[in-house]
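Query structure, 115 tokens:
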């Protein structure tokens, strides 16, 4: 069975913490937008929801990296990487919502709701 290197595990743990902080920042941005007009309020709520989703997903990554530190399995590492992909997709959705609050048109204004 292949094992993940200690350096990779440490990098994954550091990155999981950064993802938690990123989720917090996205959530706070969403909260701040909710004090503006109705349109910004709606986008702000969606962005806040994305931030909360990012935080939940990042916590799962953090938990997975703890497991990874214990056994170093490539299966756990793969699961952590997939969660990171999910976080990136959620972050993209938050960016699309933020673009809707900008005073100029954007190329793609469609967005799905965050979980």
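Result returned for the query:
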């Amino acid at each position: 069975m292949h094992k993940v290197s200690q350096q990779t595990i440490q990098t994954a743990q550091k990155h999981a913490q950064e993802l938690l902080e990123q989720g917090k920042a996205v959530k706070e941005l969403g909260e701040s937008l909710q004090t503006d007009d109705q349109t910004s309020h709606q986008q702000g709520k969606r962005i806040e929801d994305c931030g909360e989703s990012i935080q939940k997903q990042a916590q799962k990554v953090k938990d997975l990296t703890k497991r990874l530190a214990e056994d170093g399995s490539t299966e756990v590492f793969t699961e952590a990487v997939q969660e990171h992909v999910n976080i990136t997709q959620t972050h993209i959705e938050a960016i699309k919502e933020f673009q809707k609050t900008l005073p100029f048109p954007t190329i793609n204004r469609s967005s799905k709701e965050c979980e």
